[in-house]
Task: inverse folding
């Protein structure tokens, strides 16, 4: 299945172990993330299956500069002509196409499968991807006039420039990206640059109004997602 509609106008595009998303909107479609290198054709095929042309993807939101999210950003931006958006702290990595920062395993990550995944991720740190020029630097709290309005939330921890996005439609849709993961259950992502910062970010996200949550890795949560976040990461961390 090239694209799966989650709520009206929002489509998940599965690229193997990582997800991209497309918001179909008459003011211009919004693409979120691009998977690993060589994924652009899969994303364009998903748009085609929705009856959309490459040029309908007018905006490309990049949640953070990891190879499994910006791997096809340059190719996709070229094919669509989309304007590219990213947090300023990650722009140098995207524009260099490399220099990914190291991470450490999240709490409780011990089993062999996850260790193997971390090795894979560590290898992706050494990868290079095609450099992608970023048109717009997006700070915490920025209100982007896309798809009726999308708010950016800086959620560092997994990655210094990690952005989440809140689309206040359908009860609120949070694009949590890699701040957390939902592979089997809602939990930490497998690795963080700074776990304490990551926890602080998750508690901040848990206070936002949303009922749907989308992740870079794993399935979306389609009902009472904020409640699930508050259950998992209750209260605010002080300091
Ligand atoms: Zn990541
Ligand atoms: Zn990822």
Result:
């Amino acid at each position: 299945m090239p694209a799966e509609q989650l709520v009206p106008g929002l489509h998940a595009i599965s690229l193997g172990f990582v997800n991209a998303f497309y918001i179909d909107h008459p003011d211009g479609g919004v693409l979120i993330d691009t998977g690993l290198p060589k994924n652009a054709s899969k994303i364009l095929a998903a748009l085609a299956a929705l009856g959309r042309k490459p040029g309908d993807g007018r905006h490309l939101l990049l949640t953070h500069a990891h190879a499994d999210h910006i791997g096809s950003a340059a190719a996709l931006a070229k094919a669509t002509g989309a304007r590219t958006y990213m947090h300023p702290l990650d722009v140098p990595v995207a524009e260099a196409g490399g220099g990914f920062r190291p991470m450490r395993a999240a709490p409780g990550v011990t089993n062999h499968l996850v260790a193997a995944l971390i090795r894979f991720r560590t290898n992706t740190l050494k990868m290079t991807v095609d450099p992608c020029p970023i048109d717009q630097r997006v700070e915490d709290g920025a209100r982007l006039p896309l798809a009726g309005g999308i708010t950016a939330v800086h959620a560092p921890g997994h990655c210094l420039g990690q952005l989440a996005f809140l689309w206040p439609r359908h009860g609120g849709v949070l694009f949590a990206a890699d701040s957390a993961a939902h592979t089997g259950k809602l939990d930490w992502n497998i690795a963080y640059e700074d776990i304490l910062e990551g926890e602080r970010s998750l508690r901040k996200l848990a206070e936002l109004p949303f009922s749907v949550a989308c992740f870079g890795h794993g399935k979306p949560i389609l009902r009472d997602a904020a409640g699930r976040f508050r259950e998992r990461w209750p209260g605010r961390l002080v300091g």
Q: What stands out?
A: The first strand starts at residue 4 and ends at 7.
